[in-house]
Structure formats: C-alpha cells, structure tokens
Design brief:
The protein is of the alpha/beta class and about 450 residues long. It has helices at about 25, 80-85, 95-100, 105-110, 120-135, 150-160, 185-200, 205-210, 215-220, 280-290, 295-305, 315-325, 325-340, 370-375, 380-385, 390-405, 445-460; strands at about 40-45, 55-60, 90, 140-150, 170-175, 255-260, 345-350, 425-430, 435-440. The protein folds into 2 domains: about 25-255, Alpha/Beta hydrolase fold, catalytic domain (Rossmann fold, 3-Layer(aba) Sandwich), CATH 3.40.50.1820; about 260-455, 3-Layer(aba) Sandwich (Rossmann fold). About 35% of the residues lie in helices and about 10% in strands.
Amino acid sequence: PWTDVRDATRIGHRAPQTQARLVHEWGVLYRLEASSEDCLRLNVWSRGLGDGGKRPVMVWLHGGGFSGGSSGGYVYDGTNLAEQHDVVFVGVNHRLNVFGFLYLPEIGGEQYAQASNVGMLDIVLALQWVRDNIERFGGDPSNVTILGQSGGGSKVSTLLGMPDARGLFHRAIAQSGSQVRSQTPEQATRTARNVLTALNLGPSQLDALQQVPFYVLRDTLSETAGVGGFSPVMDGRTLPAHNFDPVATEVSADVPLMIGSTETEVTWNTGQNYDELDAEALRHYVRSALRSDDATADRITALYRGSRPEAGNLDLFLQIATDASNFRRGTGLQAERKAALGRAPVFKYYFNYYSPVREGALRSMHCMDIPFALHNTDVAAPVIGAGPDVKALEAKMSAAWVAFARNGDPSHAGIPAWTPFTPSGRDTMVLNPDPQLVPDYKGEHLRAVNEVMDAAEARRG
C-alpha cells in the first residue's frame, strides 16, 4: 500500500517466462518489459478518470497460451480504444506456466489443496478489483466484457466455467482461443511429478519449491524436455467440469459470447514452411494434418479445390491445416454448444484479411485480427501493412467489438446486421474490408474435416 501519489504511467512487470518463437514481424510488437514475481499488475486506460462516467469496461487477457505473454505488448495498448471509442480498457498480467498452473493437491495433500489454477484465480482477483475500483476510472462495474486472443481466448473460455468468476463479467469475446476440455487431475499430477524430478526434488519436498529462485525454476523447466504442459485443471473446485464438453457450461449460460478465428491461423510462427508444394507433397502434408490416409487426404483436398480452384497447393494446405487445428475446431465447437443452450446469443466471425507483408506470405495469420479489433493498426503496420483497406477494416471491427461490449450486440451502421449464430442458421460474419454475413460459412468443408479429425481422435483413444 502507498499513502502518497503513485506514478502509474509505466507498464507493469510481466510474469516470469521464456520468449516465444514468433515471426519477426509480430515479435517487434512485444514490449519485452522486465519480468518479476511481482507480476500481478493491471494496466488501465481511460479518458475519464474520476468523472463519474459509466463507460463499458473491456478487460483484455493476453495471448501466449498459459505459459507466456503479457498485457504490455504495443498492439495491446488501450489508448486508441479509450480515446476514440470512450471505453475503459484494462490489461491483466497474472502468473503463468509453473508459477500459475502447477497442480499440487494430489501430491501435497491438505497443505497444498489450494494449489490449483492459481493463474486463473489471479484473473478472478483482477476482475474483483475492477468491480470494486473501476468507477474511479470512469468505468461501469455492471458492464464488463472479458476478451482475449489465442491463450487469452482460452482464458476467457475458462472463466466462463469458473463459479468464482460468476457475476464479475457480463459479456465475453474469444479470438482464436478455446477451452473445450481442461486437464484432468491425473494429467496435471504427472506434470507436477516431472517438475519435481527436473529439480531433483521428491514428493515430500514441496516446501523446497518455494526456496528455488524464480529464474532457476523458469530456466530449468525451459531447458528440460518432456515435463508436460501447464494449463487449467478440472479440479472439481475452481473448475468443476469441462467447460464445453459434452455440453456448454451452465455457469455462464446467460453471458453473450462473440467468438471466431482467422483463415490461416497456422502462419504465425517461425516453424511454418512456405515452400511451394507439388501434388505428392500436398498429399503428404494434408495426410499429416488430418492424421489420415492418402484416400482421405485426396478427398478433402478435392473438396477444398472445388471451392477455390484458383488457389495454389500451399494455400490449400494452409487452409486445411487451419481447419484441422484447435484454433478452428475449438472455437467452432464452443460456438455450437453455447448456441445450443439457447440462453444467450452467440456471434461468430471468420477473419480473412490477407496481409501484403513479406509478399503475402503471412496471409491471414494467427494474431492478425488483434490490431483491427483494438484499433491499433498503425503500430501493427509491420505485420498487416497499411492503406485504405486497413483503416476501413479497423474502423468496422473496432466499432463492432465496442458495440458488443456496450450493449451485447456487435451490429453497427458500418457493417451488415450481425445476427446471432444458431444451430440452424449458423450465421457467420466474414471480416475483411467488405464484411458479409454468410449462413453456414464453409460449413461443408468444416464438417468434412471435423469428421476426419473426430475419427482420428477416436482411433488414438
């Protein structure tokens, strides 16, 4: 606590983490602020400090899975949304990776019964702070929207099933991120045992974890293969069930949801190969993406080529691989199961603006929608390009995101009427400089890929 005026003009610390492998155009948009265990920070932007305003509040949850990232990235800056759309924008930093998602109740017993999903509970604490304090920043605590992209979308999706978060937010936006299922306690306990082994500690030495310097813990685990992943756990307490499997959670049944993905999600990291593909290479990569045989790969490829005869082999593969990824399948399944509840509207989008950067190689990559939604296209020009089309899409998308935050409906005068996604109509807003609302967009393709992927997962067991 402090008793005098506090300097709050600088971005807060990020959580301890290692740096992700991003395409360099996107990497420059990271601020790379210092990390610290003192990372429970809120970054708040408002044009109405102490003016008694009742502005909609947009709480941004950053990407990076559950292991990296921060709300301090330049493209996450809330200045433009606050100034031009009159909202209060809040970015949240919270514990990540082993610090936020190490699950210990099964190993540590009663003493460690609360050591579960603490990174998500940090976000709940942040939302409680918003509830209690955001009026001083000109925000309305009864009109809070949580939103995030990639890992941030997964955090949004996780909060939808957390009883502790009920009532702390009123709308939700998940961009290219989902959380259909969470880890089981058994899976998370295996990871915890692997962490102890990597640190040369036994199950009876959990107290010693608190004596390990954070940088040693971070670096040891980043250099040790096979430890496992860190993500929310269905522990029966903070997260009582899988949020969208077999059905959508009832915890947030009355909360409207906006959800979608980009056309080529897979073109986002340094491992993506952009070599042109001949027919045999195309079959090979499609077969691998679908975990199928040659005949299935050929059948799916023919379906996609039939709708886009002008597309080259590489473009066909990138679209099939994206449709087979959890970016598309997870967000699609959440939209369907949330809509099936029929208790609150679901608004679905499909982003297919193509960047001209690097001779178009990045296409419509994962993360490409963020600067348009957050009104930050100028700083993102190294990734998305610049020009009239960029500005037109920025105006339309940011206004839609704010309209949804303001009143639960993303429709506004600059785009066609955006009707909800339903099990029968499946209306989807296709977002590019000329947005169009399309019933059952790519439905035949997505159902075909989902059938193949479901069969592959059934075989794997």
